[in-house]
Write a structure and sequence with these properties.
The structure holds two protein chains of two kinds. Helix content of chain A is 35%, strand content 11%. Chain A is of the alpha/beta class. Chain A has three domains: 53 residues, no CATH class; 254 residues, 3-Layer(aba) Sandwich (Aspartate Aminotransferase, domain 2), CATH 3.40.640; 117 residues, Aspartate Aminotransferase, domain 1 (Alpha-Beta Complex), CATH 3.90.1150. In chain B, the strands form five sheets. Chain B has a seven-stranded mixed β-sheet, sandwiched between helices. In chain B, strands 13-14-17-16 form a four-stranded antiparallel β-sheet, with helices on one face. The chains are: A alpha/beta, B alpha/beta.
Chain lengths: 490, 443
């Protein structure tokens, strides 16, 4: 390394506190006339200044702008992260959510002063009901897992209302997202896992045995995490209902269903949607999301309070009613995210929603057929919105999925979801989404094939990728063994 | 919308897949359920959508905000939205592939560090959904750590936080919550003494509390720890620009609604939950945590760490079910803290204190109005009005003023009480206008 590149590298990895210069200021405020100590008792006051950076405004802007440049993002790179539905985030939705008329509203402004926001919530709920066939939605949950938990609380309240105290179990599939069993446990239930069959779908025979008088809820992701539709979903809902349990659909993969079918027609009692997946709101590097939960008519009263109701064109925050599980957060919702989801939905009708699902399915199958000769498909049939391919180390001179994923980064693509679902060995879960062009898919396919060729000619190259990113492979073991998670630590 | 294929491309792609129509690809869906009727309004163009949203926006009233109660109208520096709306931050996912996510990861590390600095706590995570659910997670952790099940809640904890706790812990049925009564708007120490026992897992203290009052946090902390209970402190992060920190009085967990740090009011969300703890509890923390490490060349790098706590690995044995958090809101918060720095934050907090005290004094001097409590407060306080607080608040809407939060909605005995807040953003002129409008109710 030359002196010049070395200097550059050091500058680039400094954290903000290391750029701090004593006395440097960005934002200043008028000085208070009197210090806090003249209003407050001494023991209530802070003794030492916080160890925060002292920077100029330009310094802050440049620091974070340069950080952003170290990210791959959907705007800059194809992002085929399975189960995450990284579809284009329409920019106008950002403008709408930032309108001061919406963004500037206090959550305790009286209903009369926030009719626009309340109307939007009301209309959004109606739209979600229409596309799912369900009777009512809560917009409170802040993310998908929060929605799952809300659904589980609703199921618990339903059984409690029937004085049915025997239902202590929730049945999930082995291919489910980790949040399903984790939410079930947080809700106080024990988890019964049903295995998948060789064709990647939940084992119906096992399901029949697993669902008993102790089952409160059966949870199923549709399409499931191997990218297949649970063709026997109606049979699963029947098994649940006949045992007196409720049926929950994890709507994380709703992108492949919307416009094609309504979950209520599968016998779904409760489901959550991810506005930050199917409904195009950006992921923000890990949130904010929004995870509305819909229910059938019989569960409406159990929904969390508050909700927005309408009477003669006036919108009102309904704060309490008999049966509600109560609130699952403070305030109404992630309203700013709901707004973006609403704006997205209003751009669509039944026909264009169907196009979304169909093109997401088309794109996933296109990638699948173009790659499965080199990276075998875990379940070799037509897939829905995502496909699960595998790396076979014996065919790749010992190269594993992790290596392929890292090498893809060098080629300028974000990696698929890897090693998930857990039931597939060396899994690569690829979800292109409908917003990617054929040209992009072709480039991705070419990159994957080129990586395959590299495994045949120089597997070591792939095993130590990436080379072209801000950093190379990381010491994750060291990070966990001696956690350095704050600059304040001694 | 936003599907780029031409009809020709679609046909060609179907041919490459080896099917003649899309219907062949969806054959696995029960056929009788396909293609239902959708009764949706006509799809809008971008310009029609913009017009529709503008119309909805006009139905909201722009008001000068004297309301707080967990969501605060602080000045948001312009640079924040410009940085946070960069596509590289906005449209990235949770940083699973660390090498391609160093920007988000370093920002999380800086966020965690800034929270630790501000709170004087050892560790913080990448964020939770919002304040109330962050508290639920802290209570959960406290019960696991102490193997006790009784939780004492300050009666002056935000009522919506109490309701959220009730929703979270009712189905499981293990936690037993009791309220510590208040005297003069703060925890009654004698009542706390009598409630604390060998089965107390944690004391939940809010300071400033829901009524804006400052608690004697050190005393509460000492009492809790004397019985080997943990202290969970709920704070306002901006207040820590001047107020004693959770770390200084020995809180085991400190949580907060992070919205005041550079995030808009947004009618209640998206906000961010701040979650911090002492180092001995790190492995009980929920959610994402970013750590500093090195790459194979020894170069500094950042990565999600301690993942063995998390749902995608531990499933039903995970510390929490949380997956997506509020990363972009946390980014806005860390940029806010970097722009203000230690001195800016102190200035903002001191202005909050001064403006709120000036406002309180002016209101209290109006005939018929008085302060409900007489202790120390940060940026909000309870005013007893001569008439129902709802009536006052509704009347002032005509003046373009949101007078505060009417407490009757939370507590029937406080029908005449208005929770009033002034942040550094309120100008002297706005304060004068507010007081003079209130004067109409003066006797």
């Amino acid at each position: 390394m030359t002196a010049m590149t070395e200097t550059k590298a050091v500058e680039a990895t400094l954290v903000s506190i290391e750029k701090s210069v004593a006395g440097m200021r960005a934002l200043t405020f008028p000085r208070a006339k009197k210090p806090a100590s003249s209003y407050l008792p001494a023991q209530a006051l802070r003794k030492t200044a916080p160890k925060l950076p002292e920077l100029s405004e330009f310094g802050v802007v440049r620091h974070y702008t340069n950080l952003s440049r170290k990210n791959y993002s959907l705007d800059t790179h194809f992002y085929p992260l399975g189960s995450c539905t990284m579809k284009y985030n329409p920019r106008v939705n950002e403008d709408i959510a930032a309108m001061p008329e919406f963004a500037g509203v206090h959550p305790y402004a009286p209903d009369s002063a926030v009719q626009g926001t309340l109307e939007m919530h009301y209309r959004m709920e109606k739209l979600l009901c229409e596309i799912t066939g369900l009777s009512a939605f809560t917009l409170q949950p802040a993310a998908g897992a929060h929605g799952e938990l809300t659904g589980i609380f609703i199921a618990a309240a339903y059984h409690r209302s029937r004085k049915d105290k025997t239902r202590t179990e929730i049945v999930v599939a082995d291919s489910s997202h980790g949040t399903n069993p984790a939410s079930a446990a947080l809700g106080g239930f024990s988890v019964v896992t049903v295995n998948s069959r060789e064709d990647g779908r939940v084992n119906l025979d096992e399901m029949r045995k697993a669902v008993t008088a102790k089952t409160a809820l059966v949870m199923l992701t549709v399409p499931n995490t191997v990218g297949l539709f649970e063709s026997e979903i109606c049979a699963v809902s029947k098994i649940a209902h006949e045992a007196g349990a409720l049926f929950y659909m994890d709507g994380a993969n709703f992108n492949a269903v919307m416009g094609l079918a309504k979950p209520a027609s599968f016998g779904v009692d409760i489901m959550h949607l991810n506005l930050h997946k199917s409904f195009s709101t950006p992921h923000g590097g890990g949130g904010p999301g929004s995870g509305p939960v819909g229910v059938g008519e019989n569960l409406k009263d159990f929904l969390p309070a508050p909700r927005v109701t309408e009477h003669d064109g006036k919108y009102k925050v309904e704060k309490k009613w008999r049966g509600s599980i109560g609130r699952v957060r403070s305030f109404m919702s992630n309203a700013g995210v709901v707004l973006k989801g609403y704006a997205y939905l209003r751009r669509h009708d039944g026909q264009t929603l169907r196009t979304i699902a169909e093109n997401s399915i088309l794109n996933a199958n296109y990638v699948r057929v173009k790659l499965k000769d080199l990276f075998p498909c875990a379940f070799d049939e037509h897939c829905m919105h995502e496909c699960v391919l595998t790396s076979v180390p014996e065919r790749l001179n010992g190269v594993k999925t992790l290596d392929v994923a890292k090498r893809l980064l060098d080629y300028g693509f974000y990696a698929p979801t890897i090693y998930f679902p857990l039931i597939v060995h060396e899994a690569m879960m690829i979800e292109p989404t409908e917003t990617e062009s054929r040209a992009t898919l072709d480039l991705f396919i070419a990159a994957m094939r080129a990586i395959y060729a590299e495994t045949q000619e120089n597997a070591e190259l792939v095993k130590h990728a990436p080379y072209n990113l801000p950093v190379r492979r990381l010491d994750e073991v060291g990070a966990a063994r001696n956690p350095d998670i704050s600059w304040c630590a001694v | 919308m936003f599907s780029p294929h031409t009809a020709k491309e679609r046909e060609e792609m179907l041919a490459e897949i080896g099917v003649s129509s899309l219907a062949e690809l969806t054959a696995q869906v029960p056929q009788e359920l396909l293609y239902p009727q959708y009764n949706l309004p006509a799809a809008l163009t971008e310009s029609e959508l913009t017009a529709h949203m503008a119309e909805l926006g006009r139905k909201n009233r722009g008001l000068v905000c004297f309301a707080g109660a967990g969501a605060y109208d602080h000045y948001i520096p312009s640079a924040i939205k410009h940085i946070a709306s960069r596509g590289e931050f906005l449209t990235a996912y949770t940083p699973y592939q660390a090498e391609a996510s160093q920007g988000t990861l370093q920002a999380i590390y800086e966020f965690q560090s800034s929270v630790c600095a501000l709170f004087e706590m050892d560790a913080a995570n990448a964020s939770m959904y919002e304040g109330a659910t962050a508290l639920c997670e802290a209570v959960n952790a406290a019960m696991r750590i102490t193997r006790r099940n009784k939780i004492l809640l300050s009666a002056a904890l935000h009522p919506e936080y109490k309701e959220t706790l009730k929703t979270y812990f009712t189905p499981k049925g293990e936690a037993v919550f009791s309220e510590i009564p208040c005297v003069n708007g703060v925890i009654d120490p004698a009542a706390l003494d009598s409630l604390l026992g060998e089965d107390t897992a944690a004391v939940v203290l809010a300071t400033p509390n829901f009524y804006g009052m400052l608690e004697d946090a050190q005393a509460v902390s000492d009492k809790a720890h004397a019985r080997k209970a943990l202290l969970i402190s709920v704070v306002n992060p901006v207040s820590l620009g001047v107020l004693a920190t959770p770390g200084s009085y020995g809180a085991d967990f400190a949580v907060a609604e992070g919205q005041p740090l550079g995030n808009p009011l947004n009618y209640g969300g998206p906000y961010l939950g701040i979650f911090s703890c002492k180092k001995e509890h790190i492995r009980h923390m929920p959610g994402r945590i970013c750590g500093m490490t090195k790459d194979v060349d020894g170069k500094r790098a950042f990565v999600l760490t301690l993942q063995a706590r998390e749902q995608h690995i531990r499933r039903e044995k995970a510390a929490s079910n949380i997956c997506s958090n509020e990363a972009l809101c946390a980014l806005q918060a860390v940029i806010y803290l970097a722009l203000l720095g230690p001195r800016g934050l102190k200035e903002a907090a001191e202005l909050c204190v001064e403006k709120a005290h000036v406002l309180a004094e002016k209101i209290a001097s109006l005939n018929g109005f008085k302060l409900r409590f007489n202790g120390a407060f940060f940026n909000e306080f309870v005013v007893e009005c001569p008439v129902a607080a709802d009536k006052v608040r509704n009347a002032l809407l005509k003046d373009g003023i949101l007078a505060g939060v009417s407490l009757g909605a939370f507590d029937k005995t406080m029908k005449n009480c208005l929770l009033v807040c002034a942040t550094e953003k309120r100008t002297d002129a706005e304060i004068e206008r507010f007081v003079s409008a209130l004067g109409r109710f003066s006797k």
